[in-house]
């Protein structure tokens, strides 16, 4: 006996697509404007000012060596002619990471507070992390068509689990005696969460944010397959057109951006610790 699970999934996706068209159109409009706003802002600022701002942030958070690397790396990207594509990628990564954090942080807090929710979330997060990333492109295209929004949709699903898991872990690692002391001094539930638990759990949460940003960036090339643009499109052209040099240059730009974002976010984690 053959169980055709895919058939039932297709039926469910088709039903959702037919009955929630207006809902997905609204999300497409909101998220699309959000990403386009990021892109417009990053492209509107002159490249040398953007490089100076990111370099100063790198100097402050990650040290002199990373600051120098940031200046040289971003100037190399500009010299290779990939500045606009890099800003598109950065806009998509930041937008997707922000959406993932907006959704993931409350889920992590809820999971830490409720054991039943944690038991339900655990297998769902396992599924989200182990499912091949290419699979997420199918419902993304069906719901939103081609462009930045389906790319962001697939990226959010792929990148959200780390921040949920590490938010839950960070809150659970807060010493119970400190929580009990907060209650004994008359702290309300919200005061305990925002003034005691979250500040103490912040280093672990920041690690989750770092991982979410890195996983968002890892979806760049995959999202380019559904016209998300950016550096992923450069790499994809190199692959499909057998232009080894172009693909290698696009890959270098992705690596430079990844190192800069990783070191800066790690700098935030170290500062919080």
TrEMBL record:
Q: Which InterPro entries match?
A: MetI-like, MetI-like_sf
The name on file for this protein is Glycine/betaine ABC transporter permease
Task: Look up keyword Disulfide bond and say if it applies.
Answer: no
| Alphabetically ordered keywords of this record | Cell membrane, Membrane, Transmembrane, Transmembrane helix, Transport
The molecular function terms in GO held by this entry are: amine transmembrane transporter activity; carnitine transmembrane transporter activity
Record's superkingdom?
Bacteria
Q: Where in the cell is it found?
A: Cell membrane
Membrane-crossing residues? 41-59, 66-85, 91-112, 133-160, 213-232, 244-261
UniProt membrane topology term: Multi-pass membrane protein
Any Gene Ontology CC annotation: ATP-binding cassette (ABC) transporter complex
Which stretches make up the ABC transmembrane type-1 domain? Answer: 86-265
Family of the protein in this entry: Belongs to the binding-protein-dependent transport system permease family.
Taxonomic lineage per UniProt?
Bacteria, Pseudomonadati, Bacteroidota, Bacteroidia, Bacteroidales
Report any one BP term from Gene Ontology: glycine betaine transport
